[in-house]
Amino acid sequence: MYKKIINFLKKKFPLGLSIYYKFRFVFRAIYKKEPRAHLFWILRRGDNTSYKKLNLNTSSIFFDVGGFEGDYTQNIIEEYDCVSYIFEPHPVYFQKIQKRFKDSSKVKIFNYGLGGKTEKVFLSDDAASSKVSNEKTKLSIVIKDISEVIEELQIKKIDLLKLNIEGSEYELLERLIDTKEIDKIQQIQVQFHENILNPEFRREVIRSKLKKTHKEIWSYYFVWERWDRK
Q1: 126-172: per-residue pLDDT in tens?
Q2: Model's pTM, two decimal places?
Q3: Within this chain, do residues 54 and 141 fall inside the same structural domain, yes or no?
Q4: Can you tell me the distance from the alpha carbon of 165 to that of 202, in angstroms, rounded to the nearest whole number?
Q5: Do both 133 and 177 map to the same domain?
Q6: What is the count of structural domains for the chain?
Q7: Residue 203, CA atoms < 13 Å, CB-side half-sphere
C-alpha cells in the first residue's frame, strides 16, 4: 500500500515529492550519523572525486567488485588506463558491461560475484540495490571465494579493490584478512551496508583488523571509506 501511495504521488506531484525528500534528508542529517555522513559526501562531491589521487598507473591492477553498469571502471580507465577486472553477477548488468567495454583489451569481465566462499545463491532483483539472498528468487548466481579467484587469476598484487556489493563486503574482507591475502591489496575503497545483522559491530571489527596492515585515508560512516597499505 505504501509503495502504491508513493508511486501515485510521484506521478501527481513529482516536484513536491522531490522537495519533501530533500528536506527530509537534510533534517535527518542533523540527528542521524549515516545521513549526516552522506550529506558531507555529497558536499565533498565524493562520487566525482573519490577515484582521483590514487596511486595507480597503466600497469596497475584494479578489481571492481560489484561493477553494476561500469561507471566507476570507466572513471578509473579514463584517469589511469590501468588493467581492470570487473565482477558482476547480475546477468543484465554483466551484458551492459560487456557491451560497454567490448573494444577495451585492458578490461576483463566476469559474470560472477566475489565473496567469502564459493557458493550458488539467489539475488534479489532490485536494480542497483540487488543483493545476495537466502530466499529463492528467479535469479540464481555464483559467488566465488575471493582468495581462490586471486590464486586462479595468478594475481600477485591488487593496486585498488573497490567493493560495493550490498552487504557481502563483510564476508569478503573477513576472508581476505583471515587468509592474509589482504597484504596484497594496496588500496581499498569500500561501501559498508546496514542490511545485515549487527553491521556496526562487524564493521568495527573489520576496521580494527585493517588497521594492522592499512591506514584509513578518509571515512564517511556507512557511505564510503578508503584504506591504503602501510
Answers
A1: 555 556 666 677 788 999 999 999 999 999 999 999 999 989 999 99
A2: 0.85
A3: yes
A4: 16
A5: yes
A6: 2
A7: 19
